[in-house]
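Q: Hi! First time doing this. I have a protein sequence and I read that you can turn it into a structure. Is that right? Here it is:
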Amino acid sequence: MRCLAPRPAGSYLSEPQGSSQCATMELGPLEGGYLELLNSDADPLCLYHFYDQMDLAGEEEIELYSEPDTDTINCDQFSRLLCDMEGDEETREAYANIAELDQYVFQDSQLEGLSKDIFKHIGPDEVIGESMEMPAEVGQKSQKRPFPEELPADLKHWKPAEPPTVVTGSLLVGPVSDCSTLPCLPLPALFNQEPASGQMRLEKTDQIPMPFSSSSLSCLNLPEGPIQFVPTISTLPHGLWQISEAGTGVSSIFIYHGEVPQASQVPPPSGFTVHGLPTSPDRPGSTSPFAPSATDLPSMPEPALTSRANMTEHKTSPTQCPAAGEVSNKLPKWPEPVEQFYRSLQDTYGAEPAGPDGILVEVDLVQARLERSSSKSLERELATPDWAERQLAQGGLAEVLLAAKEHRRPRETRVIAVLGKAGQGKSYWAGAVSRAWACGRLPQYDFVFSVPCHCLNRPGDAYGLQDLLFSLGPQPLVAADEVFSHILKRPDRVLLILDGFEELEAQDGFLHSTCGPAPAEPCSLRGLLAGLFQKKLLRGCTLLLTARPRGRLVQSLSKADALFELSGFSMEQAQAYVMRYFESSGMTEHQDRALTLLRDRPLLLSHSHSPTLCRAVCQLSEALLELGEDAKLPSTLTGLYVGLLGRAALDSPPGALAELAKLAWELGRRHQSTLQEDQFPSADVRTWAMAKGLVQHPPRAAESELAFPSFLLQCFLGALWLALSGEIKDKELPQYLALTPRKKRPYDNWLEGVPRFLAGLIFQPPARCLGALLGPSAAASVDRKQKVLARYLKRLQPGTLRARQLLELLHCAHEAEEAGIWQHVVQELPGRLSFLGTRLTPPDAHVLGKALEAAGQDFSLDLRSTGICPSGLGSLVGLSCVTRFRAALSDTVALWESLQQHGETKLLQAAEEKFTIEPFKAKSLKDVEDLGKLVQTQRTRSSSEDTAGELPAVRDLKKLEFALGPVSGPQAFPKLVRILTAFSSLQHLDLSQNNITDLGAYKLAEALPSLAASLLRLSLYNNCICDVGAESLARVLPDMVSLRVMDVQYNKFTAAGAQQLAASLRRCPHVETLAMWTPTIPFSVQEHLQQQDSRISLR
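A: Yes, that's right. Below is the predicted 3D structure, encoded as structure tokens:
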């Protein structure tokens, strides 16, 4: 290795290699460009000495050593150099320029022609806290050069994601061999723990004691064998140790030796950390782009291997020699300010909620997707999967976020959206994610930031990313600039949660706003969010959103990488919540009684799929059970919230409830659910509302911020204001029911629970509704509003409403509990009700069932693509007034199997008789598979001893359309052909444009004779059928005695195939039309065939 000494100023002269005496040189100012410096022979260690001019100012000469493998370096100078580079902007920019130039100058020829996947970084998690083997191949691998797509957009401040560091501590490298000198302590004694699996014990090692010198390197010569890092006794001198041997597989390893504390002492997580610098591509292991390569160093025939683990230096006396050393397994990972911020963030998010908020019942997280609302529309809406085809996110939130990490490329932001209706527990779920991270269950993230979106509706354009992370949340976080710099270096280790995304203003334009990758100047919050959504700002992080799926918000989420939906409580989960609620309240003796009260009210039981409503039912049940044994729950949602607020209104200040209701309505019109203390009309109203739990401080919110405990409570208060207010004209009141669309100034219905509560408050008897809340005087003021709404509802024609508006009308009529309105609505229901594509929740299914029973007529229901639960489907199918129904094949077959397992024979028979699939259109492979399962059910049923006959759905199918298209059609067509023989009444078979080819035509010809007595129309339009396929069809055509129309247009058979079909047609007098025009047949041939038989159509 070359040794450098002072030479004349301004010159860079090198000593001839192999000389035992090192000439001198004097370092002057670094002149010239970076390229000149790169091509010079200057040694990086000399540059380090030149940088620390204060330490070298008083030295007139540098001590030289004749050993070719040693150099002089001062570790304090090296550490100061790195720290100053981090702190000084000018120095950091200069070094960044060098690193950028390094990407072009140092081209590693070893990487040419090789796949980038075979080169791996040594990760920061591979900390040398335990002994580990270093195979010989490791030293021969070149370090991985960053690829263009993995580099950040701003190369000026680029640093490696996993910085190499100087290894400090008491370490020894040696082979597993029999050597005859000082024995090493056993590994368990050194680490104070059991050796890990696969760990080899170092029995003996060679140690060559050297005199202590802070400026010298000591060398260990090791025999051949694997290399291990182990703690050792502290008799070795301080300094840098170079360990080299030709047979070790690693040419040279540098270890800075420190002392090991006493066995009873565990070193605290303190000490300096050497920040990472870019490594030279063809100088692996070096933290400088000017480091000499392996070819420059005589004693290093291979690239040097250095450790990249962060460890600490323990300052103990070099003369201390404890019997056994001990090191902590958990070593500090970040600088102290970062560690402190990390711990404070854990304390912020780690607090468990108290009271009912702490009751945890896991809900299903279902994978969701967006689909076009219609074939002619570009707008997307949340798709409604069938119950059986729902894809649950197995493993919950941890698996969701882990999958997000595994499926993204380096430096790619991952956007995940969790959707759900109001009251489904989205905010609680977001809080559970933060607590899971604080408890260590999300180790893939170093930092989690949770920001409620209502905090981001602020004017101004002076915000930066640092404000978004630390200052704009409900509780500002104190973080140093070093923390923010650390986060920017590793954005892939950051999880940002935006809760309540629907509360953002103008969120539909985030995908189209302009924002750079790192705005140098402050910008608006809209610009910051646009940068996050466009994956330019904090690139590589995970962005988690919670939102209600409504309006234009869905369009903003169309670019999300993953969509999930909270499905709410099942019946069993709702009952489990009730049990845990009374257990946490110390009222275990009332658990069974509370469940009985809930089961006696089917509507409230169906509404309990919402966690918010389930909690409200528990609160009212608790209050009623404390009063006496003859307690009963109300039968409507309006009665439920009247019962909850009635006791609070008894001792309220005058007009307090009305003022609170007005405040709730005004906030709802602005799409807000939080408020400040100064927004209350008086301090008495605020004190009363907080004491009764009508408003409360959100988790981790500022002292002055308040919110309604649930969205439905805000909806009820908003409806109460509409019922009482004199500011709203009576003729304007019907628009707030949101049943008929308005062309001018439409009501957006953000408070979506208002229509039902408004109908209940207006029409229910005043004595147990408005009178119970505000007294008789308030109840008398709604008479005119009641007449206006009654006249409006009775003029509505339910048969003209869309499915969603029809369901809302049924809910409003049920909440009103007014006989005249209810009878008008149910008697005007049409006999054929289609809810195709409209989601049916458990409350929807319950109210629809009650309306069908009260109508007194027969109904046919279309329940496809409604996502109706099995219990709701069974309750509707079991109604005697339902004579026909259509539902998803998979859901229906699952219902039959469930009824058969539970022994409900009569209901099973009714469900089979009422089910129909006429007409059936297969649009996916799943449709064909479900149809196959239905046929298999019939075959199993026919072979059973206790049942006989065909399923009506299979027996009565008359029209079947196979519309999978040219891509999926050839794959699914063989499955369809195998079950065609089961449809004995099939009259219309449409197989157009599925690319079935000659093979498909041959298989179809084999199945067609079973349909000879029923099939009237057969379409094989545009299916790439050639002469062979035409011959197969011509052979079976005379057997199709019932066939009237056959379409084989736009196929690929030639005149030969056409003549075969024409010849077969002459033997089929029953066939009326054969459409046969195709461009592969000469027109003269087609005309000739048509002249011979006029039934051949060429149009």
